[in-house]
Amino acid sequence: MRLRLLVPTLAEHFADAASIVQAFESAGFRTSYDLLFGDPPEVLFSKLPGGTITYSDLQDFLSQVATATAAHGLAGDVALEEEQNVKSAQFGGETGVFELDEMAAGVFGAYGVTEVSGSAASRLVLWIVVRHLAQYGESSALWIDTSYDFSVDQAVLALQSIPFKDAATALDRLQVSRSLELSEVYDALDALRSALTVVNSVVASQGQNPLSAFPSTVTKPGLGPTFTFLCENTIWTARADDIFPEGDEGLASLQDGNPNCRVFIAECFRSRNQICRTWCPFAIRNGSVIEAVDWTTKEGDEAPLEEGDM
After folding, report:
1. 3-class DSSP assignment, residue 306
2. Contact, 188 vs 144, CB < 8 A?
3. Which three-class secondary structure state does DSSP give residue 102?
4. Which of 65, 176, 215, 282 is the 20 to 30 A CA-CA neighbour of 8?
5. What is the CA radius of gyration of the chain?
6. Which of 228, 230, 263, 235 is nearest to 248 (CA)?
7. Whole-model pTM?
């Protein structure tokens, strides 16, 4: 953790905590890791300007930094209650599509990192973000745009279809960062106090993607294998036309009758707290607005949940 974020806590024990932290940063020690797992105390002391802090106070300072950044123990029943309270507060039907909300209830709004990938990933996440901001007036969100394709017009178009009372101020609480400087990204993540969602790119898989319930899925999220173990959940999105390449009369009729809508499939590839290989259809109207879709796949199209897919 960056030392500057610990100043309010350290100030309870050291009146000049801000100047001490500034001295450490000037000496090249910017994070708690630098202090606790780098040089021994006598070396740290030698690199500080004279009069910054006494050696005995330095040892106490390091102890307070360790206490402030250490993981605190928590009883299981308390942790369960807190997680249930967080989920009920953070997830109130974020998409407005019942089937999609049911699938995502254990994903969005939970702790940790959620990966969303596929052909509708950015639009789905943008819809969830602006709808959440419109529904909860005290909420805020940070969008780190690493591909420089964030569209304010899409956000405005989406908000025009959201009836919640705080929709008028939603964009005031959405911060967009287009910086690719790693230090600034760290600062943004340090300020994050909730869940993190990553919109990932798409690459080809070698044959059918084994994470998918559909044989026609021959693509996968683009980040490397290590990223797999960093995510609590992975949601995949794909055009329904690609999932059912041989055609579906109900799907064709639906899209012919609604030229401004495109039907997509959302599927849970991986999850630590949700059933995997579950899926549901949804529609995107005018490129921005997420809607429910009245479409039932023809017999034999639905991929059943296989035993052991948890």
Report:
1. coil
2. yes
3. helix
4. 176
5. 24
6. 263
7. 0.63
Q: What tokens does 104 get?
A: 């995502």
User: Is the CB of residue 263 less than 8 Å from the CB of residue 281?
Assistant: yes
Q: Which two tokens stand for residue 260?
A: 């401004």
The DSSP-derived string for 40-97 is -HHHHHHHSPTTS--HHHHHHHHHHHHHHHSPPP--HHHHHHHHHHHHHHH-S-SSS-
Q: Pick from 38, 137, 290: which is nearest to 47 by CA?
A: 38
**How far from the centroid of its chain's Cα atoms is residue 208's Cα?**
27
> Residue written as tokens 């690609």?
242
Q: Are 104 and 95 a contacting pair, CB within 8 Å?
A: yes
CA dihedral for 276, 127, 140, 84, sign (positive or negative): negative
Could you give the 3-state DSSP secondary structure of residue 171? helix
153-193 pLDDT, tens digit each: 999 998 988 888 899 999 999 888 776 666 766 766 666 65
Round to whole Å and give the CA distance between 157 and 161: 7
Pairing of strands 219-221, 233-239: unpaired
**Contacting residues for 76 by C-beta, under 8 A, at least 6 apart:** none
Q: Is 238 helix (H, G, I), strand (E, B) or coil?
A: strand
8 Å CB contact between 282 and 123: no
Backbone angles phi, psi at 69, to 5 degrees: -105, -5
* DSSP 8-state class, residue 2: B
CA atoms of 297 and 250, how far apart (whole Å): 7
Whose CA is closest to 98, among 298, 294, 274?
Answer: 294
| 3-state SS, residue 229 | coil
Nearest-angstrom CA–CA distance, 127 and 6:
34
